[in-house]
Amino acid sequence: MSVFDGLPVWIAVIVAICLVAGAAITFVGTVGLARFPTFYQRIHAPTLGTSFGAFFVIVGSMVFFTALEARPVIHEVLILVFVLITTPVTLMLLARAALYRDRAEGNDVGADMPAAENRSARSDVGDTDQTGL
Description:
The protein has about 130 residues and is mostly helical. It has one domain. The protein is built from five helices and no strands.
């Protein structure tokens, strides 16, 4: 006899969906880390993957242990709050450190962007002649 025998099937399905969704979102974030060409683009994908992936995994954990113990289990909310606060803060600190390093080394931050993104990111583009000459 197992502890999981008393778990209703519909709760197991909800937990499974949450865990698979969380794992899939986290995996997409790691693929984005490997596929994006620049550092500034690479740090964005894992941040979203971590935040949203952790959200779904923690919701699945809350549902599972609430059904298993027959009482509300909400201490996972603290984990979620810490993950949702620390992950974007870490992203901003990494981006600012990289931007500071790039500017200190004299690198053009927009130079490694594709032409369309580089044109929209630069501030001196607004003075261009629209006639095409």
